[in-house]
């Protein structure tokens, strides 16, 4: 055996390296999530879904031009309209450009960077045919202005709350957070409770999860490791939850309750969601931004 | 015959009189619109609608308490889920209180009135079962801060545009406007085109109509007369349009197109609609404010 000193590659990372590594990782996460979701599509055995063809993801790329006509990056939508997942989108994007002056004032480090920004991330929203399978949302992102940080989170939006599922979902995120910093879970759980709240209805959007933003601990490597763990934890936890309930029977009343719950989801996304506001403010791809909207929703 | 000088009653109106007269008139307009819509429900003869029971309006009152716990007025919702009108709401409200400091800065005359306001109005949104019957929206209102003014308008949102219907709808408003001021129609039509526009989709919400706000010509009587004419013109024009198309046959594809169009309507209402923002900002009744949302909507 040769004793070799391990090279600390990360200490040598410059900002461009970090951007490439993060953007590539969001793509890898997207691939692993889509593969799992397609596997789930093939596994369902009960009720009418089993007689439908299994869904596969359809990809669609988009590019973005900035206001002055130059390249502003772009993204790739992956949408599946399947027999378990009535509609699920797993979008990645890597964009750059300049914020409007007004918007720059709301984003840390943007005003003193003449509005210049770079952002890369993954965004996922899943709506199911079976009202017993909880819809979910997850997002992870790296953002650079004159500052740089990670943000992300995930939340579960069951139509019918189930303590066992709620516990399982939160336990997954708690274990994930605790692997990085014992202060993360309580802080990010509270942030999720505050963020995923439909103020005008005075009701939560779901049973929460975690939400974090502006994460810059001083170690990009540590923050990136946490963000990766959040993405993988969500994937594994959520796939287990979908598999657990996808073969349950449901009634017309269950479906009706699901469609009304989706109406609330639409209200949250169009009125409060940061990703939606960010996307629309930065001239993002509208189809990709509004991929989060359910295929069908009802209001009383 | 005795020669009697006609008493100019309106010159003697104080602000409280104006408020009462306007609020009562909005109620009367509501009654006449609901009566017409219920009559229409009884007239449909074709397709599956004719085998359903005719709808009737259900009324629901709500009251509003201000942040300091005092009386803040209230309103009355009238909602009908019928066989022609899949869901229609005709709401009236008369509210008063104080705007938040931030919101007061956006409303003429509110900041120098310590945020105090009074507002009364009628708001109507109609969604139909038959995709060939165009959905519509209408609103008229009187608002008082340290200033006082009228606002309102109406627009038509056909799933399938029809030049004849568009012409008829606009001709009605043009004739109405021209009875009061030849400058109104071109100005208020343009305002509607600008206002009823879904910026992030870069598409109009429908075929427009008229929109006006901050109308204070110097004569309350003239502005009120115009506002009354707008309400009555909308009622008469719209009822004619509903009757014209309600017995047409439609296909599953037509229904699908209708539900997707409704998705766009939801986007407009939750992202841009002034009445929605005003209502949510002033602690209005959420059920009444979001009455405008369709019973069911779809997204691609």
Let me know the average pLDDT of chain A.
93
Give the helix tally of chain A: 8
Kindly report the CATH topology of chain A.
Answer: oxygen-dependent coproporphyrinogen oxidase
Straight-line distance between termini of chain A = 72 Å
Largest sheet of chain A: 7 strands, antiparallel
Largest interface: A-B, 19 and 19 residues
- The level 1 CATH classification of chain A is Alpha Beta
Strand order of the largest sheet of chain A: 1-2-3-4-5-6-9
Q: What overall geometry of chain A do the principal axes of the alpha carbons give?
A: globular
State the fourth-level CATH superfamily of chain A: Coproporphyrinogen III oxidase, aerobic
Count of discrete structural domains of chain A: 1
How do the helices and strands follow one another from N- to C-terminus of chain A? HEEEHEEEHHEEEHHHHE
Low-confidence stretches of chain A: none
Strand content of chain A: 25-35%
What is the tally of beta strands of chain A?
A: 10
The multimeric state of the shown protein is homodimer
- Under the CATH scheme, which architecture of chain A would be assigned? 3-Layer(aba) Sandwich
**Rg of chain A (C-alpha, Å):** 20 Å
* Helix percent band of chain A: 25-40%
What structural class results from the helix and strand content of chain A? alpha+beta
Looking at this protein, list some descriptive labels:
26% strand, 7-stranded antiparallel beta sheet, 300 residues, globular, alpha+beta, oxygen-dependent coproporphyrinogen oxidase, homodimer, two-stranded antiparallel sheet
